[in-house]
Amino acid sequence: MSQNIFKPAILALFEGRATPLQKSLIEDWLTESSHQELYFQWLEEWERQNPQLIVDADAAFFQLSNQAEAENPKTSAVRPFSRRLNFFLGIAASVLLLTGICTYVFRDAILFQQYETTNGELLTLQLPDDSRVTLNANSALKVPRFGFGKTSREVFLKGEAEFSVKHLPNHARFIVRTPDQLEVQVLGTEFMVYSRSRGSKVVLNKGKVQLRSLKTKETKPLIINAGDVVTISSKGRLTLHHNQSLAPHLGWKEYRFMFENTSVSEIAYQLTERFGVQIVIADSTLAKRTIGGTFKAETADAFLQVLAEMLEIRIIRNETPSGATQTYTLTY
């Protein structure tokens, strides 16, 4: 169906006149990403052409009524009805304005299903294409509601997640995008993507993955293989590490921390990311101390208790107001 034929149905939807058949056709039409852009373009055009804010409506009404009465005194009899009509039209316009604003503000909620985890929480999802995603703590994933798997598979990740992507008969690529403009493309494989405030990385379990940073002018993507780990700098530079041990990067799926000569300052970062707590290290020497080993902990308190025994240090749980971030101080 051409755009010229389809546009009236979209406008009818904005005005609340769309039939069930039109709504069904619109839902199918929105599965194309280009159609989604056109949808919001038409919405902005419709809002400009249908201003919902009536400025000084009473003054405009009385001016029109007085002019009509001067030309024909008999029209004064219809003034009460006209005022009531203007009142109801104002209500209708307000409803349309609210609908337009809600559609614009909540368009992400309309077009995407969002999944989120909180402090210490893990979540495993089965996507419409039968791919599986496991979200680490304090992470979020946006998945399109319409057409996922038919022509493309594109999701948006903030935080950390492991993907087990199913290859489809139509060879639709699975694309992961992150806030720092990292693009990860696969057909079917297992990999992990980490994207938080201090940087990003990709860890590949099986198959091949194509990476590209949209921050740089380089158009040639980086192809990585199983066992590779790629870190991404704040400027979009990709650094490839071959034949890496993947266990330390994936232990979080079992609530495990895996360290190999890891500094206390790095451990503090990981606790903040996973449990949402704030760690204050009172001594610079303590911050540089390192430990190794595997530790399982589902709360910050449980891990810090083990850390205190290993390093023979004190962990002070600071008093914080209700609802504020819990703070711990590490000291000798």
TrEMBL record:
Source organism of the structure: Runella rosea
InterPro entries, per database record: FecR (IPR006860), FecR_C (IPR032508), Ferrdict_sens_TM (IPR012373)
Membrane-spanning parts: 85-106
Keyword Transmembrane (UniProt): yes
Positions of the FecR protein domain: 114-210
Key word Transmembrane helix present: yes
Boundaries of every Protein FecR C-terminal domain copy: 256-315
GO molecular function, one term: sigma factor antagonist activity
Record's signal peptide: none
Keyword list, A-Z: Membrane, Transmembrane, Transmembrane helix
Protein name (Swiss-Prot/TrEMBL): Iron dicitrate transport regulator FecR
